[in-house]
Amino acid sequence: MSAVATALALAYLLASGVVALYALSQLHLLWRASRGGAEPAPPADGEDLPLVVVQLPLFNERRAVRRLLDAVAALDWPALHVQVLDDSTDETTAIAEEVCAGLRARGRSFEVVRRPDRVGYKAGALATGLAQTDAAYIAIFDADFRPPPDFLRRAMGHLLAHPELGLVQARWGHLDRDRSVLTRSLALHLDAHFGVEQVARSAPPLLMGFNGTAGVWRRACIEAGGGWHADTLTEDLDLSLRCQLAGWRLGYLDALEAPAELPDDVRAIRAQQHRWMKGGAQVARKLLGPLWRSSLPLVAKVQGTVHLCGGMVFGAVLLLCLITPALPQVRAGSALAATLLTPAGPLLQGVLGVLVLFYGTSCWRREPTGALALRRLLTTLPTFLVLSTGMALHNAAAVVEGWSGVASPFVRTPKRGDSPSDGALYAVPTAGLWPLLEGALAVWGAWGAAWAIAGGEWVSACFLASQALGFGAVALGRRA
After folding, report:
1. What global pTM score does this model have?
2. Catalytic option among 87, 142, 144, 238
3. Could you list the residue range(s) of the whole structural domain that residue 335 is in?
4. For this structure, is 236 an active site residue?
5. Fewer CB within 10 A of the terminal residue: the chain, N end or C end?
6. Residue 332 pLDDT exceeds 70
7. Is residue 105 part of a domain?
């Protein structure tokens, strides 16, 4: 028993250390972001401006396509051509053809580009569109985005003023932030990603990732990076890192917002998180070597590694979820085990403090008053932590798949669009055995929370209650 207890205590300490190191990297990003982001250049003015091709990759987006095309048609730019890169198998194609025909009748340059197959998924569609134009500037929007009319004026103004930039990425806004508990939690996370992480990573010498949409590329940058590749599920992160390794800089404008839709269904979040976690691991497997062989400063290599390997933190969280309910038995198993567990508590308390500071700073930047920022933090951070804990098993498995080279299709995040109904909206793969495993982890966490409360171990009790609620909600949840 003593050997088992020691091994479990060591695993618990290592998992706590991994989470703490990740939190330390986030604290570093928070410090860098505190120095401010890029000041936007004046909007591009006049009519003698370069051609911009807007690419709209679509796959079965019948509820969102009309809204997207209306927003793109309202963009204020004198030389604009729109490629609807449609791989759909439903009525999306007919809707897109109808709307584009009407716009062409009004003198607008809109075309629907169809491929014989969906090879390469989104990356393949973007590469196909790029091969059909010689435009020097390419803007990309996913189906759920609604860019404001002045988007290109502002993004291109910054890009034209900074020839060293190969991309200008805009911040994602949220059309449905207050739809549900899930959307509020996701909005909190995305606001911190853009308002802290992207601000920090866009400043040299760190490396920034393209978010796949709401950005304007310089074609020369795409070509210098080797073009779109379809060998990972996160083609956006892959290309952006290759471009920066080739010497280009990428820019981020926090002041430029492109509103978009958030998923409010657990199945949709599963699909999105699986793609992001597995894709990040695939890019890490592909580019960590070139990153560390590059001439970039050490801080860029370290933060780039944390960025690419960040999904591994879910493996550490899963390990904590498995061991924490058994901590009394582990401590009693041997004196060495009890000693090894001693520093884990302060490490995890420090992690919680960093999370409060990280997300609190984001709330303070987004809300007009400190009182509203505090209210948002207190009402949303707990639910976000519960959701993140509940996704630990699913996300950890996705990371393992990415590192092991297991292939899987690109599963898009379903869009609600303008439809208030649910219906057959979320056509994503079934969850299989995941709900059973997550349900077991929820029961295990609830059992552990009971002993923690009985023993007055309130920190462990809070974590285990979060585990029980999170895995239970993810296992049983559909919408919240």
Report:
1. 0.94
2. 87
3. 2-32+311-390+430-476
4. yes
5. N
6. yes
7. yes
